[in-house]
Design brief:
Layout: E1 5-9, H1 16-27, E2 30-33, H2 34-42, H3 46-53, H4 55-70, E3 75-78, H5 87-96, E4 97-103, H6 106-112, H7 126-143, E5 146-149, H8 154-169, H9 177-182
Parallel strand pairs: 1-3, 1-4, 2-3, 4-5
Length: 184
């Protein structure tokens, strides 16, 4: 169990959601994917939220959700790629948790990002991903308490995140179900 929230930040396509979901399940931690929860609240995808109401509405919902999450049991939180860009969001995350940058090289992000699933890139191309990366990377790095290198593939990223959490938060892996059955 975590004593404070762990907020995962980074570029769209860096692995925040896929790694966060798997690691939280492996370590039996509470998990929130902020983009997914906002989509559930609105009853439509984040791409549709941007198209119908605009980015400003989405960013307000994001800040309000962040405040709500701070009142919940600590867990692993996958933020949207733009969450940490807002100074008030950085302050909230710093006050209620630890910020971990999921750092993945731009070339890898460009190699497999699905632009149609990312509201910030709707109708845009890979050059826009590159431009956004260069706009945001300094803020990501300056905001992070810890950095997770996610340049060696999914399974290495899962392992690295589990190790980072165990080392920095004294977490123990829960016993496997087959191990518990053997103790009876």
């Amino acid at each position: 169990m975590l004593e404070r929230h762990v907020f995962l930040i980074g570029m769209p396509g860096s692995g925040k959601s896929s790694l966060g979901r798997k690691v939280a399940a492996n370590l039996k931690l509470n998990y929130v994917d902020m983009d997914r929860r906002i989509a559930e609240i609105f009853g439509c995808s984040t791409v549709e939220i941007f198209a119908r109401w605009g980015e400003a509405v989405f960013r307000t919902a994001e800040k309000n959700l962040l405040i709500q999450i701070t009142r919940e049991e600590p867990g692993l939180i996958s933020t949207g790629g733009g969450t940490v860009i807002q100074p008030e969001n950085r302050e909230i995350m710093r006050n209620f948790g630890v910020i971990v940058l999921v750092d993945r090289p731009l070339e890898q992000i460009l190699g497999d990002i699905k632009l149609d699933r990312r509201p910030i890139f709707a109708g845009k191309g890979l050059e826009d991903v590159e431009s956004l990366y260069h706009q945001r990377i300094a803020t990501y790095r300056a905001s992070a308490d810890l950095v997770l290198d996610n340049s060696h593939g999914y399974y290495a990223g899962v392992s690295a995140m589990e190790q980072l959490l165990k080392t920095n938060f004294r977490l123990q892996a829960p016993p496997r179900d087959d191990a518990r059955r053997g103790e009876r």
